[in-house]
Amino acid sequence: TAGITQAPTSQILAAGRSMTLRCTQDMRHNAMYWYRQDLGLGLRLIHYSNTAGTTGKGEVPDGYSVSRANTDDFPLTLASAVPSQTSVYFCASSDTTKSPLHFGNGTRLTVT
Amino acid sequence: RKEVEQDPGPFNVPEGATVAFNCTYSNSASQSFFWYRQDCRKEPKLLMSVYSSGNEDGRFTAQLNRASQYISLLIRDSKLSDSATYLCVGISGSARQLTFGSGTQLTVLP
Questions:
Q1: Does residue A84 sit in helix, strand or coil?
Q2: Residue A97 touches chain B, beta carbons under 8 Å
Q3: pLDDT value at residue B94
Q4: Phi, psi of B80, rounded to the nearest 5 degrees
Q5: Per-residue three-class SS string for chain B
Q6: A101 at B interface, C-beta within 8 A
Q7: Minimal Cα–Cα distance from B102 to chain A, Å?
Q8: Inter-chain contact A100–B32, Cβ cutoff 8 Å?
Q9: Hey, is the C-beta of A48 within 8 angstroms of any chain B C-beta?
Q10: Average pLDDT, stretch B80-90?
Q11: Along the 112 residues of chain A, how does pLDDT read in single tens digits?
């Protein structure tokens, strides 16, 4: 089944540790996005990529980094996790930056 | 001011009621608009696109008012299964400016 896959589904992480959230899509979409969703704050864009090889900063990029080595994968890395990064993280993709987004199932991250 | 604003609700309506949500946007460069539905603790799912001429999909009608910079979603004959959070988004072609509203929570009561 075509779609967008995130891993892990959930994770508990000690503060100060690093972690990479994985995101893979098989729809050959050009654009990919990482959002975090916190209660009362809605979806906030962390980083995005318009096409393979390019990335850009969103609304809340601090403490996160991304790479886009190929079309399919868009990993999000937390170099040194802090409790304020406890959130639900959604990866999304779209054919173009004018197309609707398709979301992965999300990763629930708790930083203790 | 947020680029996209929604009334967070909650909207509690009886089954069979008609309910409408509005979403205002500040980026006049936004070209495409969409409504998403999000169930508790799950990913947002595309509900429908919004066109200037208005569009209808069964019990759902979406409209765009560019002059006043808002989009609307009308749900007729509400079902229990319509209970969810509804998110609007305006897309300008710039991924950096792709902003979702915070969502409107709808609960349909039996």
A1: helix
A2: yes
A3: 72
A4: -55, -35
A5: CCCEEECCCCEEEECCCCEEEEEEECCCCCCEEEEEEECCCCCCEEEEEECCCCEEECCEEEEEECCCCEEEEEECCCCHHHCEEEEEEEECCCHHHCEECCCEEEEEEC
A6: yes
A7: 4
A8: yes
A9: yes
A10: 94
A11: 569 999 999 999 999 999 999 999 999 999 999 999 998 788 999 999 999 999 999 989 999 999 999 999 999 999 999 999 999 999 999 998 888 899 999 999 999 9
Q: Which of B2, B58, B67, B65 is nearest to B33 (CA)?
A: B65
> Using an 8 Å Cβ cutoff, are B54 and B48 in contact?
no
CA distances in angstroms from A104 to A4, A7, A13, A15, listed in the order given: 5, 9, 21, 25
- State which amino acid sits at residue B23: C
User: Looking at the complex, does the CB of residue B98 fall below 8 Å from at least one CB of chain A?
Assistant: yes
Cβ contact A31–B95 (<8 Å): yes
> Hey, what amino acid is at B78?
S
| Structural tokens at position A106 | 């999300």
Minimum Cα–Cα distance from B100: chain A residue: A43
Between chains, do B87 and A102 touch, taking CB under 8 Å as contact?
Answer: no
Number of H helices, E strands in chain A: 0, 11
